[in-house]
Amino acid sequence: MKNRCPKCNFGRAWKLTDGRLQCRSCRHRFTPRKSVWEQYRISETQKKQLLEYFVLGVPVYRARWRLSCSRDTAERFFRDIRRVLAREEQFAEPLGGKLEMDESPFGGRRKGKRGWGAAGKILVFGIIKRNGTVRLSIVPNRRYHTLRQEIQKYTKPGSLYYTDDYEAYASVALRGERVVVKKEKGRPKGRDHINGIEGFWSYAKNWLYQYRGVQRKFFHLYLGEISYRFNHRDQDLLPLIHTLLLKTQYTDI
To answer: Would you say 87 and 61 are in contact if contact means Cβ atoms under 8 Å apart?
Structure first.
């Protein structure tokens, strides 16, 4: 039971007039645990409307004239959904098989140096299983030790790794077989490629564009949302996310 007494773990309690519960065994009073869905005091209809907007990818600023609750409530609701999705992706199993790996900088266009040396960018490392799922992580740099740690965390030994010729990927040969994809004028030479992960970067950046900028402190939540959407691209997200919101305790996100 989700409302077991935190003091003696007894599973039955009385409901008090102030909304709290009192354990029938030790008489300890405590606040009942609520799911993310139950945490919001707006009506079921309002929550279902917000969830549908979220699934359809409608930002709050675009739906503001159709909201039946305050804009602040809608923004908090969307943010908590992203927390749940990011948490779900965090506990996903490591990938195995044919894997493509790459890094990409995220952030708006700024004056000054372009590319890897651009200021204010967020570096994201990605691993995608061909015709399968993706794993993403924010990394501080592209150094050997940083990428090796992420590869060990998100992949299974014995996998077939497709990478570009960046020297930091040399260590993957110790975990499995490595195929180096070389390019000429931006196009892969030969039949080997990493088109899967490069296509995902385009998908992710196009999805983020509609928000007209994301606060850095919340970027990891949007990244979790994008990862979840991509990994469940062949499923109806509405019932999936609704189930997650019902079973995830608000104190766990």
So the answer is: no
